[in-house]
């Protein structure tokens, strides 16, 4: 489920347009707000950042807009990397509409948890897609517990290891919105039985265009030279990213 078999970025966008679109939005907003520091980007940040104080004033859209914003390059890259890794399988299994409902439902749940239990002073702000990302974990954990036919043993191992590491990092690293992580996970877990109804297990073969499946046997002379990325490699890559983030956080670089 988490081994990328797409041959190009164009193919990834074709197969998973929602995940690709969300990542493009992440990058575009980071470019406008952080890198180029455009005035329009500053307006978007001020208009969209999460603030319990402003939500109390009736600005309820701030329960949604923080999902698109990030505090710096590493924050944006990490959430985008997690979305690219764990989002495509769910987008195929759920379909575009249900995936959007699940993703934003979990993200809003995380922001509601932040609103209910976070600080309400005018200086406290929050932003990031972490609540929505943890919602994806919530859906996968629901599969592991109640829809075992939808997830293979290898993918189950990847999910549980990464989830446990992420949970530990939630409480170890500073400047983490713990409420968003916890309530995002709960939101994803709660939405799972609704959006997973009639879902089929992920299959890379469903991404193949029909006009390429003519029943003939095709020979690829370079097939033996191609290297597959194992599930263990995925685990070590994610662990490495988490360790790097932890080090950068301790050095106050993030």
In terms of topology, how is this protein built?
Elements: H1 9-15, H2 17-35, H3 39-48, H4 52-56, H5 73-94, H6 96-117, H7 130-146, H8 153-172, H9 178-195, H10 231-250
Task: Output the keywords.
single chain; 254 residues; mainly alpha; Rhomboid-like fold; 10 helices; disordered C terminus
Domain count, please report it.
1
**What does the overall shape look like?**
globular
Tell me the CATH superfamily. Answer: Rhomboid-like
Task: Tell me how many strands there are.
Answer: 0
**How far is it from the N-terminal to the C-terminal residue, by CA?**
30 Å
CATH C-level name? Mainly Alpha
Describe this structure as you would to a colleague:
This protein is an all-alpha fold and 254 residues long. Helix content is 63%, strand content 0%. Helix 7 crosses helix 8. Mean pLDDT is 86; it is low at 212-229 and 247-254.
Offer a quick outline of the entry.
This protein is mainly alpha-helical. It has helices spanning 9-15, 17-35, 39-48, 52-56, 73-94, 96-117, 130-146, 153-172, 178-195, 231-250. It is globular, with a radius of gyration of 19 Å.
């Amino acid at each position: 489920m988490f081994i990328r078999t797409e041959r190009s970025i164009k193919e990834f966008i074709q197969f998973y347009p929602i995940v690709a679109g969300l990542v493009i939005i992440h990058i575009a907003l980071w470019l406008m707000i952080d890198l180029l520091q455009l005035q329009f980007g500053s307006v978007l940040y001020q208009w969209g950042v999460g603030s319990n104080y402003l939500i109390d004033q009736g600005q309820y859209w701030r329960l949604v807009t923080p999902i698109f914003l990030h505090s710096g390059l590493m924050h944006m890259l990490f959430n985008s990397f997690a979305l690219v890794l764990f989002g495509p399988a769910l987008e195929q299994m759920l379909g575009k509409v249900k995936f959007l409902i699940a993703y934003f439902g979990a993200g809003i749940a995380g922001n509601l948890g932040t609103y209910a239990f976070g600080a309400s002073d005018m200086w406290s702000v929050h932003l990031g897609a972490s609540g929505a990302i943890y919602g994806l974990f919530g859906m996968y954990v629901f599969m592991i517990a109640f829809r075992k036919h939808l997830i293979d043993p290898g993918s189950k191992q990847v999910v549980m290891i990464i989830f446990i590491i992420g949970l530990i990092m939630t409480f170890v690293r500073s400047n983490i919105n713990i409420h968003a992580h916890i309530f995002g996970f709960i939101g994803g877990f709660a939405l799972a039985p609704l959006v997973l109804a009639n879902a089929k297990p992920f299959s890379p073969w469903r991404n193949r265009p029909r006009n390429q499946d003519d029943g003939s046997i095709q020979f690829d002379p370079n097939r033996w030279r191609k290297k597959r990325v194992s599930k263990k490699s995925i685990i070590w890559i994610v662990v490495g990213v988490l360790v790097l983030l932890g080090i950068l956080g301790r050095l106050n670089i993030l």
